[in-house]
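Q: What would this chain look like folded?
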Amino acid sequence: LHSFPTRRSSDLDGVIFGITAGLGFAAVENIFYVFQYGGAVALFRAFVSVPGHAFYGAVMGYYLGQAKINKKPWLAVWGLVLAMLLHAVFDTIAQVTGALALIVLPAFVWIVYFKVVKKEIAKCQTESIYLPSS
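A: My prediction, written as structure tokens:
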């Protein structure tokens, strides 16, 4: 029988909590947008805005986990600032690119995933206390 270490926080917990918070934020924001602009906007937001919020939340949560584990509270603030900046870039792209936003916004969201979030998750997994022992 395999025994697991006593449960303690990991930085991956922060990522999971951040993604959850980002998805909750996206749900509320999407409700407002759909009521304001109609159902046509819902499909685009489902495939672009929802993953975007999850990824921004993952960035925030990564730094929240790092703040807790490394006992550096300023990292939590830094994570919040980064998430807000990513969201602001998304909103700015949506405002200034017009119809081109249909291409640029999905590209931005997935670049955030592949260049930032995926690396943060991989780092969390390598540091996990729950990796099977060899």
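The chain has five helices and no strands.
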